[in-house]
Specification:
The structure is a homotetramer.
Chain A (H helix, E strand, L loop, with lengths): L2 E6 L7 H14 L3 E5 L2 H7 L2 E4 L26 H13 L4 E6 L1 H12 L4 E5 L15 H22 L2 E6 L6 H9 L4 E3 L7 H14 L5 E6 L5 H10 L6 E5 L11 H19 L5 E6 L2 E6 L10 E3 L5 E3 L7 H10 L2
Parallel strand pairs in A: 1-2, 1-4, 4-5, 5-10, 6-8, 6-9, 7-8
Antiparallel strand pairs in A: 2-3, 10-11, 12-13
C-alpha cells in the first residue's frame, strides 16, 4: 500500500477533521502517501482529488465541520457511479480509501472493497446511531453544545417562570436528547425509542408547579419524535396552562470545535484505519467498544459479526441496530425533581 | 436613605445579577440596607420582598438571568397598581428603589418617583435599544452568544456548500444582528433600520457562488425584520437556487453567563445607582455614554435631556430614539467578500 | 435505610456537585432522607451536618467544585477520629454514607463500613488515577480545560515561532497530559509512566524546526514528571536553542463547569450509590468499566476483586494499580508531525 | 494608491487576524491590491512578502494569534534596517503599509512615513496600554480569558477554603487586572498604578475570614507589580496564616479566539486604515475614542495631538501616557464584600 485517499461523506460532524489529520499523519509516518477527496463520493467521481502532506492538516484538529467538505451523493449506490469513482482512484494511483461518515458512507466503502479497492469506514455523525461502535465521532461535541444551550435556556426559564420545549437533533436516535437532557438537568426527555403520553407530560408539568415548588420546567424533545413546535401544540391541546416556549437548537448542535474527547477518539480511530489498510484489510468499519478499538465487516452475515446483511430481496438489513441508552431515560426520571 | 430595594423587570438579560450584586454590595458599604423584590412590579404589589445581605449575592456575578426573577406587569401602568406597590414599600420601610430593565421598567420607576419614592433605572436588555445609554446590560453577551452560534453554523455551511439564514433576536433594533454579523463574518446582514431588496439579496448569493469562488453564504436577519423562515421563503420566491437552510437562534441568545464586559458595566452602573439614591436623586436613568457614567431624567422635556416626554394626548414620546449603528451595516458590506 | 448522608473529600473535581445532586434526588425518589456533610470527614467529626431536600441541589449540576466543600483530614485514619464521626452520624440518625473523592476518601469509607456504617465510594478526582473505574468524575473536564488552554497557547507559539513547555496537573498519572496532548496536537507528551531522554526531546524540537518546516513546538509535561520550569531548564542544559517558554496551567484545570460527559457519569454513579445502600451494601466503590456500572470491594483480597488489600505489616496494597493509556503515548508519536 | 501591505509586530493579540482580514477585504473593495508581510519588520527586511486575496483571509476572523506571525525586531530602529525594508517594499511595488501592534510597531510606522512610505498604525496588544485609543485590539479577549480562569479558580478556592493569588499579564498597565478582577468578583486587585500596603492586604484577608463569614479570598495581581509567587511570599512574611496558593495565568491570557467585540473593533479599525491610506495619509495611528474612530499623528508635538514627541536628547516622549481606570479600583473596593 503506497498511496491511500481519505474522504468525508454524509452530514458533517465535529471531529471529522481530527480523523482526517490522523489518517494523513499516521499514513505518512508509515511511509504511505495520502490524497484528499473533496465532497465525498461526488468529488471522487469528479476527480476532485489532491495530495495532502503533514502540514496541510496542521491547523484542523480543533476545527468543526470537515475541510474536505461533504455531500450526499445517491448516485454512488449505482454501479456506474462506483466504476467512475474507481477510475479516478486508479488514475491517481490510489490503492485504499478511508471513508468517514454515516451508514450511506459505509455502503460506498463496501462497494469499493467489492470492486477490489480496500476501503475502511469510520463512524462520523453527531447522532451516535451507527452500528459497530459505542460512540461516533461528533456525538460528544453535539451533546456538549446541546447541554450548553439548555443551560442558557434555563436562565430565562427560571427568570420568567416558564416551560420550555427544546428540540435537539437526532432523527432516529434519542442519544443526544438523553445525554444532554441528563447533563442539563431536564425535567423530561422525549425520545423516539420510547412511547410517551402527552397527558402525562402535561400532568408532570402541572404537578411540578403545583406541588413541588418548581418555578420552571424544561422538556428536551429529539427531532425524531416530532418538532418542538408540534410537541408544544400537542401539550396545549392536552391542557397545558403554563407559559410555554419552544426553542429548536437546529444546526448549531452540528458545528463547533470538537470536544477533547471527540478529538481523541477521532485520532485513535483515524490512525487505526491506516493500520488496517496497511495490513491489507478492506470492507471493515472501525469502532470503539468497551474502550477498545474494534473492527466489524461492513457487509456479511450476522454470525460473522457484519454490520449489514443483504436480504433475499437485495435490501440492506441492519444487524444489531443501534439502541439508545434507555436506562438513561430511567435515570433521568429518578433525578428530575 | 436607610433602606432601598432592587428589582428586575421585563425580559431577562445576562448581567442583571451583576447589577443586583453591585447595588447590594455598594449600598451595604454605604451603610444602607437592601431588600430584594421578586418578579418585578408584580412582586412589589404582592409584597414578595425580602432582606438581602452581602453573602446572598456571593455567587451570582457570573450567572445568567436574574435570581430576583422578572415578570411583565402591565397593571403597574395604572394608579391603583402603583399605590399598592408603594404601600408595600412603606410597609418594609423602603425609601428608594433601583429598577433594572427596559422601557416599561423605566416608566414604573418614573411613577414611583412622582409618588415620592425616588427610583433609579438601569438599562437591562439584550437588545441595546434603550435610550440614554450607548450600551445596555446584556447586549455584549447576546452578541457573543450569537457570534459563537454563527461560527458553529459556518462549519456546516462550509462543509456542505450551503446558504444559511440565521435569525437573531432584536425586535426593534438591529444591533445584535449588526455586531454579531460583523464578528462572525456574515455575508449579508438584514436589520429593521434599513430597507432591503430581496432580489438583490438573492443576486448577491448567486454572485458569490458564480463569480467569487464562495462555497457558502451566511445571512443574518434580525427578528424585527421578519422570521428567518419567512425570509428564506421570500428568497426562494425571488429565485434563490442555493441549498438554503434556516436556523433561529431563539432564546439561547438571551441566556448564559455574562461576558466580562457586561459584568463590569453592570457593576459600574449598579454602584452608581446607589450613589444617586444616597445623594437624594430619583426619576433618573443611568447610562454609559462615551465611556463615562451619565444620568438622564426619565420623564421631562427633550430640552432638559429627558428620555421620554408626554404628548398632549398623554402618550409617551421617546426623545432621541435609539439608532442602530448603520455605519456598521456599511462596514460589513465592505468586508463581505 | 431511611436516612443517608453524602460528603466530598480530597481535592475538588468538576462533577462532584452533579454526583451530590444525583445522590440527593435519587434517594428522595426512593423515600430516603438525605443529609449533607460539609468539608468531608472533618465536617463529619465536627457535626457540620444538615438536611438536604430536592430544591437544595437545584442549581448545582453545572457548577464546578463542590458546594459541600472538601478538606483533607488525616485524623480520620485513626480510630478515635472514626468513632467521633460515627457518633455524629448516629446523632443525626444517619444509616449510610456516600463518599465522593479519591483514595483517601475510600479508606475512610471502608473504616465506616467496618464499624457498621455502610459506606459507598464514588471516584471523584481530575487525575483519573483511582482503581476500579475507567473514568473518574472530573477527568473529562480537566482534559477539556487543559486542551482549551493548549489551543490558546498554540496561537502564541505559532505567531512567534516559539517552543512551549506546558505543565498540566497529574501527580502520579499521565492521563490528563496524554488525553489533552493528543486533543491539542502536542508535539511531545512527557508522563511519569514512561522514561524520556532529554536529549531526544531536544533533538526532536530541533529536527522539527530544521527538517520539517515546523515553526513552533509544544511539549506537554505532567506535573508528576517534574515542574515545567525544571523541564525547560533541563532542555536548555541539553542544548535547546529555541525560543523556549513555560506555562503551568495550575489550578485552572481543576475548576470550571463540568463537561456534559462528567455530569452524566457523575449522575449515573451517584444514583447507583443510593441503589447499593438501599440494597444493604457497604464498603464498595462504584466505577464505570466498559460503559457499565461496576462495584468493587474497597478492601479485601485481590482474588475477590478488592481495590485494596492489607499487607502483613498493615500497609495498604493497591491491587491492579491504575495504568495510564501508554498506547495513547504511542498514538501521539505517530501523529506528531 | 494601488498596492498596500499589512504586517503585525510585537506581542500577538487576539483580533489581529480580524484586523488583517478587514485591511485585505476593504482594500480589495476599493480596488487596491494587498500584500502580507510575515514576521513584522523582520520579514519586511528579508522580503518575506506575498500577495493576499479575499479568500486568503476567509477563515481567520475567529482565530487567535496572527497568521502573518509576529516578531520583535529592534534592528528596525536603525536607519539601515529601515532602508532595507523600504527597498523590499519598492521591489514589490507597495505604496503604503498598515502596521498592527504596540508602541514599537508605531515607531517603525513613523519611520516609514518619514522616508516617504505612508504607514498607518493600529493598536494591537492585550495590555490596553497604547496611547491614542480607549481600547486596543485583544484587550477585551484577554479580560474575558482571565475572567473565565478566575471563575474556575474560585471553584477550588471555595471548595477548599483557600486564598488564591492570581497573576495576570500587564507589564505597565493594570487594565487586565482591574477589568477581570471586577468581572470575576476578586476580593482585592493589585495594580502597578496604585500603591499597596502588604500588611493591609493581609489584614483584609484575615478580616474576611474572621468577621465577614468568607470562606475564601481571591487577589488578582498584575504582573507589572511583581510575580504572584513573590506577592504570596510577601504576604506570608507579613503574617498571612491562610491556606495560600498561587496561579499565574501566563500565556493563556494572550491566545484564544477573539471575543465578538474584539473582532468588531478590529474590523472597524482595519477598514479605516485603508480609508486613510487611500486618502493619502500616513504617520497616523487609528484609535477608538468615545465610541468613534479617531486618528492621531504618531510623532509630533503634544499640541497637535501627536502620540509621541522627540525630546532634545532624541529620546521618545509619550504624550498623554495611558492611564488605567483607577476609578475601577475604587469601584471594586466598594463591591468586595
Amino acid at each position: 500500500m503506497k498511496r491511500i485517499a481519505v474522504l468525508t461523506s454524509g452530514g458533517d460532524a465535529p471531529g471529522m477533521n481530527a480523523a482526517i489529520r490522523a489518517v494523513v499523519r499516521k499514513a505518512i509516518s508509515e511511509g504511505i502517501e495520502v490524497y484528499g477527496i473533496n465532497r465525498g463520493y461526488a468529488g471522487m467521481v469528479e476527480g476532485d482529488i489532491f495530495h495532502l502532506n503533514a502540514k496541510d492538516v496542521s491547523n484542523i484538529l480543533n476545527r468543526g465541520g470537515t475541510f474536505l467538505q461533504s455531500a450526499r451523493y445517491p448516485e454512488f449506490a449505482q454501479l456506474e457511479g462506483q466504476l467512475a469513482g474507481i477510475e479516478q482512484l486508479k488514475k491517481h494511483g490510489i490503492e485504499g480509501v478511508v471513508v468517514i461518515g454515516g451508514d450511506g458512507s459505509y455502503h460506498g466503502a463496501m462497494r469499493l472493497t467489492e470492486h477490489g479497492f480496500p476501503a475502511i469506514g469510520l463512524p462520523g455523525t453527531i447522532d451516535n446511531d451507527i452500528v459497530g461502535t459505542d460512540y461516533t465521532i461528533g456525538f460528544d461535541t453535539a451533546v456538549a453544545t446541546a447541554t450548553d444551550a439548555i443551560d442558557k435556556i434555563r436562565d430565562t426559564a427560571f427568570s420568567h417562570g416558564r416551560t420550555f420545549v427544546v428540540e435537539v437533533m437526532g432523527r432516529n436516535a434519542g442519544d443526544i436528547a438523553l445525554w444532554s437532557g441528563i447533563a442539563a438537568g431536564a425535567d423530561q426527555i422525549i425520545v423516539p425509542e420510547e412511547e410517551f403520553d402527552i397527558k402525562e407530560v402535561v400532568a408532570k408539568v402541572q404537578n411540578g408547579y403545583d406541588n413541588k415548588g418548581k418555578n420552571h420546567h424544561i422538556i428536551v424533545v429529539a427531532e425524531g419524535v416530532m418538532s418542538g413546535e408540534e410537541f408544544a401544540a400537542k401539550m396545549k391541546e392536552a391542557g397545558d396552562t403554563s407559559d410555554l416556549r419552544v426553542t429548536n437548537l437546529g444546526h448549531i448542535v452540528r458545528g463547533g470545535s470538537p470536544t477533547a474527547r471527540d478529538r481523541v477518539i477521532a485520532s485513535w480511530m483515524g490512525a487505526h484505519a491506516v493500520d488496517l489498510l496497511k495490513a491489507g484489510y478492506g470492507g471493515l468499519a472501525v469502532g470503539i467498544h468497551n474502550e477498545k478499538l474494534v473492527e466489524s465487516p461492513i457487509l456479511g452475515t450476522a454470525e460473522e459479526g457484519a454490520l449489514f446483511s443483504l436480504g433475499e430481496d437485495g435490501k440492506i438489513i441492519v444487524n444489531n441496530p443501534h439502541k439508545a441508552r434507555l436506562d438513561f431515560a430511567e435515570l433521568n426520571r429518578s433525578l428530575a425533581h
